[in-house]
Amino acid sequence: MKLPRRVSLGIVLPADLAFTPGGMRVAGVVPGSMADAAGLLPGDLLVALAPPIMPLRSPEELRVATRCAALVETITFLVERAGAGFEREVRVTKRPVETIFGHEVRYDHVSAGGARLRTIITRPIAPARHAAVLFLQGIARDSLDFAANPDAPLGLLIQGWAREGFVTMRVDKRGVGDSDGEEAGFEADVDGYREALDALAAYDFVDPGAIFLFGHSVGGMIAPLLAGERSTRGVMVYGTSAARWSVCVEASTRRQLALRGEGASEIERAVAHERRELFGAGSGAYHAELEARDLAAAWGKVTCPALLILGEHDWVVGEDEQLAIAARAHAEVVRLPGTDHLMTRHASLDESLRAYGRGDFDERLVRATATWMRQQTHRKPGRQEGF
User: Fold this and answer.
1) CA dist 241 to 16, 218, 323, Å?
2) Are the C-beta atoms of residues 216 and 155 closer than 8 Å to each other?
3) What pLDDT band is residue 384 in, cutting at 50, 70 and 90?
4) Quick one: fold of 11-91?
5) What's the rounded Cα separation, in Å, for the pair 375 and 92?
6) Is the peptide bond before 59 cis (omega within 30 degrees of 0)?
C-alpha cells in the first residue's frame, strides 16, 4: 500500500509539555495554514480533530490524526480557549512537495521492522542510469522533506548534488514526517537504511555499480556499517567520529563547555548531568546499541574508497576522532576552512559558537563531493591505497 502524505496543521508547539491529557498546546500559528484558517491563537489547546474524534494527547495520536486528515477534504478543529470550547471546520491543506528544475522528485517508501519509511528521491529527467547518493542522517529526528524549507543546509546539499547530475535518496526515520511507527533504537535506523540502499539500487534510473553513501554526524557512524555489508562505490562522511559513542559524546560536551569558558569542575558536573540525561537525544536503547558498535573496527573493514571532509569550525566532533577514520579506511581528506558541524560557514570559531545554525551553507561541500564521486566512477572498484 502506498504511504500517504500527512497534512500540515501549521501549529508551532511549545518547547516543553506540548502534549497534555487534554490535548495539544499551541505556541504559535503559521500564517496561511489550516490552524490559521481555524482561528487558533497561542495559548489555545487543540483537543482533537474530527470526524471521527481523534484526540491529540501524544505525538503518536498527532501522527494518526494528520494521516487520517489527508484522506478527506475538510476537518474540524476542537479547541479549548480560556476554559471555553469551540469548533471550526476548515479545508484540508496537503503538505507541499519539493521541486527541482530539470528533475523528478519522487515520494516513495521502504518497509523496515514493520514500519513504512518515507523515502524522497531526486533524479535527472534524462533517460539514463545515473550515479546515486544515499544520505545518512545524524541523530536528529527531523524530517528530510525540505518542501517548506528549501534553503535548509541539508536541502541545499541535496539540490547541489541534483544539479551535478546525481540521483539522491533520503529516508525519514520511524514516526518522522510521513513515516509510520514510533521512535526506535539505533539498529532500527540501520535497518531502515539497509532497505533504502537495496531499494535505491533497484531503480531503473540508478547505476547499481555507482552508489555512494554520505553520512553526516551519527549518519557517518552508520556509513561504515553499511559499506561493510553492501557493495558501494564509495563512502563520504562529514562531522563524525571513529571513537566509541560514549567517548565521542563526553569529549564533545567537554570541548564545547571549555570553548565557552567553563572551568574544570563545572565541566565535570555538566558531563555527569548530560550522561544521566542521555545527552539530550535518543532513547536509552539507542545509546546502548550505538555504544555496542566498534566503529574503529568497522572502518577497518571498509574496502571501497572513502572521503573524509573536515570542517575547520566543527567543534562538535574532535579532529583527532575524524582523522582516525582516515587512518583506518585509507580515506582521502578534504578540509573546508570556516565551516562548522552543520555545513555552514562562519568568519571565526567564536562566531560559529554564537551563531550556530545561522550561517550560510558551504557550497564547496557540493563541489568537493561531486568531483570526488566522478573520480571514483571512472576508477576500477576496489580499495584505493595511498591517499
Assistant:
1) 30, 8, 8
2) no
3) very low
4) Pdz3 Domain (2.30.42)
5) 48
6) no
Predicted TM-score (pTM) of the model is: 0.87
d(CA 325, CA 331): 7
Which among 217, 253, 240 has a CA at the least distance from the CA of 328? 240
Summarize the confidence of residues 142-167 as an average pLDDT: 94
CATH topology classification for 103-377? Rossmann fold (3.40.50)
pLDDT tens string 174-192: 988 899 888 889 999 999 9
pLDDT digits (tens, 9 = 90+) for 105-116: 999 999 999 999
What does the block give as the cell for 247? 567517548
> Do the beta carbons of residue 43 and residue 26 sit within 8 Å?
yes
Single out the residue of 119, 260, 103 nearest to residue 177, CA to CA.
Answer: 119
pLDDT value at position 208? 96
The region of weakest confidence among 79-83, 92-96, 157-161, 369-373 is 92-96
Of 311, 368, 318, the closest CA to residue 342 belongs to: 311
Kindly list the domain boundaries of the chain, sorted by start residue: 11-91, 103-377
Quick one: which of 223, 225, 163 has its CA closest to 367?
Answer: 163
14 prior amide bond cis, ω within 30: no
- Structure confidence at residue 282 (pLDDT): 65
